[in-house]
Design a protein that fits this description.
This protein has 383 residues and is of the alpha/beta class. The protein has two domains: 80 residues, Roll (Urease, subunit C, domain 1), CATH 2.30.40; 290 residues, TIM Barrel, CATH 3.20.20.140. Helices cover 39% and strands 25% of the residues. It has an eight-stranded parallel β-sheet with strand order 5-6-7-8-9-10-11-12, sandwiched between helices. Strands 3-2-1-4-13 form a five-stranded mixed β-sheet, with helices on one face. Helix 4 links the parallel strand 6 and strand 7. Helix 3 packs across helix 4 and helix 12 crosses helix 13. The longest helix has 17 residues. The radius of gyration is 21 Å and the shape is globular.
């Protein structure tokens, strides 16, 4: 009999692996933070002696959820400016509020609040984009939360930096500090095509390639964004990003509500990832991401909540439900985007987009034990 740290006994285990298994009366054996075995409960009792045993007789164990796009500190702006379109919300309310209120203490407190909310609703990893990324990273690391922290870049001065050179320099300092951290990784986070000019984007593209970092960016969020780009630049944002060297397998393109068939094929060919934020898109009336068509084209689609101020929560279970429902009604097809597909979007697809599918995103031997227990002994889950 082998001595191990932890043995989880569960009614069901849903690994979200390539075998599409649903295992009943199984155990997950954990040692030194990693999964070392998944096996029938009767067999586990004879094979392992665990220091800690947990019984989940009415639960399903699933991979920890991955919130692939959020702005954690903005939890303190929850309810600030509801029932507004994106540009009105952003330019007339959020940006002025950020200029007045955001500082290191704000980001620290807001991130703590966001992490508490995310953990309570089953999220074990988040992909962030905000000012003072060093503070976000520190809070997540101190709490023990896995995170990809965006190194923000925007053309105008903010509380974090004054120009593109300073944004990039300060971001690189955060990258250097956390490049070997067990829980924290970083990604370049240019805000959007309409707020970052060509030269900084080219620079980011070069650095991302050299440092093997992802690029986390709002893209094609609204019809207005796309039409303004066509009017001002003579091309749609995705085409511009392609010319600038940003449209690569490193790109995490957030929202993507305005896509032609040709652009879907371009994303598939480039190997870029799409982060779907259905509740934020619905709240701001930004549009609908064509998830069904993207998945059919072979594009990796992950799921995010966006911020508490544009959602207004960080509940990934709610986001999964919304993603499935929105896909069905927008396609007038009840079979579009199944429960299994949205669970993948919230787990292994997110890990793939963040470049961490080798360590998390599914329940498999060798991966970290990022696990959520879903209670099925409730009024809502009977029978």
């Amino acid at each position: 009999m082998k001595n191990i740290d932890t043995l989880l006994h569960a009614r069901w285990v849903i690994p979200v692996d390539n075998k599409q298994r649903y295992l009943e009366q199984h155990c997950i054996a954990i040692h030194e933070e990693k999964i070392i075995d998944i096996l029938p409960s009767a067999q586990a009792k004879n094979q392992y002696s665990a220091r800690v045993n947990r019984d989940y007789d009415q639960h399903a164990l699933i991979p920890g959820l991955i919130n692939s796009h959020t702005h954690a500190a903005m939890s303190l702006f929850r309810g600030l400016a509801d029932d507004l379109s994106l540009m009105d919300w952003l330019q007339n309310h959020i940006w002025p509020a950020e200029a007045e209120h955001v500082n290191e203490a704000f980001v620290h407190t807001g991130t703590e609040l966001a992490i508490a909310e995310m953990i309570r609703s089953g999220t074990t990893c988040f992909n962030d984009m905000y000012f003072f990324p060093d503070i976000t990273a520190r809070v997540a690391a101190d709490i023990g939360m896995r995170a990809s922290v965006g190194l923000i870049l925007i053309d105008f001065a903010t509380v974090w930096a004054n120009n593109s050179e300073e944004y990039i320099a300060k971001g690189l300092a955060v990258f250097d500090h956390y490049k070997d951290h067990k829980l924290i990784k970083t990604a370049f986070a240019p805000h959007a095509p309409y707020t970052v000019s060509d030269e900084p984007l080219k620079h980011i593209g070069i650095l991302a390639n050299e440092l093997e970092l992802n690029v986390h960016m709002h893209v094609h969020e609204t019809a207005f964004e796309v039409s303004e780009a066509e009017k001002n630049n003579g091309q749609r944002p995705l085409a511009r990003l392609n010319e600038l060297g940003i449209l690569t397998p490193a790109l995490q393109a957030v929202h993507m509500t305005q896509l032609s068939d040709e652009e879907i094929q371009l994303l598939a060919s480039a190997g870029s990832h799409v982060i779907h934020c259905p509740e934020s898109n619905m709240k701001l009336a930004s549009g609908i991401c064509p998830v069904k068509q993207l998945l059919e084209a072979g594009v990796n689609v992950a799921l995010g909540t966006d911020s508490s101020s544009s959602n207004n929560d960080l509940d990934m279970f709610g986001e999964m439900r919304s993603a499935a429902m929105l896909a069905k009604i927008s396609n007038m097809d009840a079979t579009a985007v199944s429960a299994e597909q949205v669970l993948k979007m919230a787990t292994i697809n997110g890990a793939t987009a963040l470049g961490i599918s080798n360590i998390t995103g599914s329940l498999e031997v060798g991966k970290f034990a990022d696990i959520v227990a879903v209670n099925f002994d409730t009024i809502e889950t009977i029978p």
